[in-house]
Amino acid sequence: MLKTLDPILNADVLHALASMGHGDTLALVDTNFPAASVASHTVLGHPLEIGNVSAPRAMRAILSLLPLDTPLQPSVGRMEVMAAPDVLPEVQREVQAEVDAAEGRSAPLYGIERFAFYEAARSAFCVVRTGETRFYGCFLLTKGVIAPTSEGSA
């Protein structure tokens, strides 16, 4: 265990987060998502696990370290409910609250049609499966940048 790191972030997830670059995507998915088959197409090539925690809890841990892409564009996508793309299930509303808290502002999730989500996840850097059992607990995060500080700039 390390200081200031959320203890649910295991070494494999930490390594993936650190290895991602600006514009890379991470698919955070629920237990029903075909994580192994989809992850075989990603840069990492296999699924990562943050088991036994909900999607909102996993999102909070990831966003404690991962900067989201600029406020000029949406950075967190959500799998749309089939035949009801504008409906936000409870799990998605809870994740929206975590994203807003991490960003310190309203940062609305954007919808991704279910099968388009599978395709986008195949192109991701990695897939992280949570213990989320509620349907539509699947999200796509785009990594942003951390601006240099005056002390650390070249």
Structure characterization notes:
This protein has 154 residues and is an alpha/beta fold. The chain has a single domain, classed as RbsD-like domain (RbsD-like fold, 3-Layer(aba) Sandwich). 30% of the residues lie in helices and 16% in strands. Strand 3, helix 4 (90-103) and strand 4 (110-112) form a beta-alpha-beta unit. The mean pLDDT is 95.
Helices and strands, with pairings:
Elements: H1 11-19, E1 25-29, H2 35-39, E2 48-50, H3 55-63, E3 76-79, H4 90-103, E4 110-112, H5 114-122, E5 126-130, E6 139-142
Helix pairs in contact: 3-4
EC number: 5.1.3.-
Enzyme class: isomerase
Protein name: L-fucose mutarotase
| Class based on secondary structure composition and strand pairing | alpha/beta
Just give the CATH class: Alpha Beta
Total helical elements: 5
Overall geometry: globular
Largest sheet: 6 strands, mixed
In the predicted model, the low-confidence regions spanning at least 5 consecutive residues are none
The rounded distance between the terminal residues' Cα atoms is 32 Å
Total count of strands: 6
Mean pLDDT: 95
CATH topology: RbsD-like fold
Indicate the proportion of strand residues. Answer: 15-25%
Strand order of the largest sheet: 2-5-1-6-3-4
Our Rg estimate from Cα atoms comes to 15 Å
Proportion of residues in helical segments:
25-40%
Name of the CATH architecture: 3-Layer(aba) Sandwich
- Total number of domains: 1
Task: State the fourth-level CATH superfamily.
Answer: RbsD-like domain
The SSE string, one letter per element, is HEHEHEHEHEE
Pfam family, one: RbsD_FucU
GO molecular function: D-ribose pyranase activity; fucose binding; L-fucose mutarotase activity
InterPro entries: RbsD-like_sf, RbsD/FucU_mutarotase, RbsD_FucU
EC number: 5.1.3.-
